[in-house]
Design a protein that fits this description.
- By secondary structure, this protein is of the alpha/beta class.
- The protein has 2 domains: 191 residues, Rossmann fold; 60 residues, N-terminal domain of TfIIb, CATH 2.20.25.
- Helices cover 32% and strands 36% of the residues.
- It has 7 helices and 11 strands.
- Strand 6 and strand 7 form a beta hairpin.
């Protein structure tokens, strides 16, 4: 099973940036920085849970934060370290990352903020995993520090319902088509999304096809409050991610800020 997952990652990574080239990482990093500083103006250190290939972390370092990322995928950590070997000139912050489990890590130090972006917390689909990750965030926060994360918003998932989505993009060298087919489980509060990917190298004519499953947990504000209280945190922010608008049944991505 592990080797199959690695194989899928290796295939998927060639097309990942192309699929998400329209994702505005810079705007998201600015939003995170602004939100953190609204609650902690002198914040400097950030622990990023589920740091992936480090795109958010490096941008936050460029804004002036010292970011330590934790990522369970060894392949993504390797990419993040390679990309992070050449920081932007004049950057006043820093970025580093290590392989680890965000539900169990103990780094033995505190941070001014903890962040988990791109629905990282929604990938924790059991109550036990969510509780553990919230405790990890709380235990790594300085007093007054904020835990900022975004999740799938339960009211939107249930009122609108997930639907089949097709995304096709190309850049002159590669073309990729991804079909996302969801399956809603209201008893468990999850959505299983099956991604069928067809990628093509337009120069060589080589192509590949593979499928992978993502199981996502959607959360309601009351659930977040229970998780926060059980880990010694208080909810101080709930808004649409990036726009800062009040959440509604049409809001799929909601950002929460929990303060220690």
């Amino acid at each position: 099973m592990a080797s199959a997952a690695m194989s899928n990652f290796e295939k998927y990574s060639a097309f990942y940036d192309l699929l998400y080239r329209d994702k505005d990482y810079a705007a998201e990093a600015d939003y995170v920085a602004r939100t953190i500083r609204n609650f902690s103006p002198h914040a400097r250190s950030i622990l990023e849970l589920g740091s992936g290939t480090g795109r958010h972390g490096r941008l936050l370092a460029g804004i002036g934060f010292d970011v330590h990322g934790v990522e369970r995928s060894a392949e993504m950590v390797a990419i993040a370290r390679t990309a992070g070997a050449h920081p932007d000139a004049g950057s006043s912050g820093s970025f580093g990352c290590a392989e680890g489990d965000i539900c169990t890590i103990n780094l033995g130090r505190k941070f001014d903020a903890v962040v988990a972006l791109f629905h990282v917390m929604s990938y924790l689909t059991t109550n036990e995993a969510l509780k553990s990750a919230f405790v990890v965030a709380a235990e790594h926060l300085n007093p007054g520090g904020i835990f900022l994360f975004d999740v799938w918003h339960g009211p939107a998932v249930l009122s609108q319902g997930p639907s089949v989505r097709v995304k096709e993009v190309e850049d002159g060298r590669r073309r990729v088509r991804r079909t996302a087919t969801p399956e809603l489980d209201t008893n468990r509060g999850t959505v299983k999304v099956v991604f069928d990917v067809h990628g093509e190298d337009l120069l060589s004519g080589e192509s590949l096809e593979f499928s992978e499953e993502h199981l996502m947990r959607y959360l309601f504000p009351a659930e977040v409050d229970l998780l926060a209280q059980s880990s010694g945190l208080t909810r101080v922010l709930s808004e649409e991610f990036l726009t800062a608008e009040p959440p509604s049944p049409a809001t799929w991505g909601v950002a929460y800020g929990l303060q220690r």
